[in-house]
Write a structure and sequence with these properties.
single chain, alpha/beta, YbaK protein, eight-stranded mixed β-sheet
Amino acid sequence: MASWYTGAVPPEVRVLSCSDVHNFLTEQGIPHEIVQLPARSNTAAKAAHLLGVQPEEVIKSLLFIVDDAAVLVLMPGDRNADAERVREAVGGGSCALARPQQVLDITGYRVGAVPPCAHASQTPVLADERVFEPAVVYCGGGTETTMLKIRSDDLRAVLSPDVRDLAAAPQ
């Protein structure tokens, strides 16, 4: 992976929203829905509760920094990503979750609202193999009060992720 992240906020990065997600997917011809939540949600468990769906139907978009490069990792809401598996998948040395400011700088979205697409900068995407098991999934919609509803096959098509087993062992 290229080493490009310096920690500085690029001047062209602005805080993005659900409109950016909707516009991106519309331009790609991908059927989707932006769902308004009745309350703020910044965790997969809370989003699942508010939507009335199972936690594994909610997909977390997690940003990791591997060495000095960003990688987006998609995980079902009932699983945690294993940083060692992420590191091995990318072939890097060090691997850690991005800090909140890094998430905003790189994706354009705040932690808890990160969608799987329509980011401020391009990042490689890894997806846990379980992400695509439900026919329909709910992902971050760009704000803490919106979710992206999309068929998992369409999500896979628009992202072309590297699919692997990235889940940590259950505790």
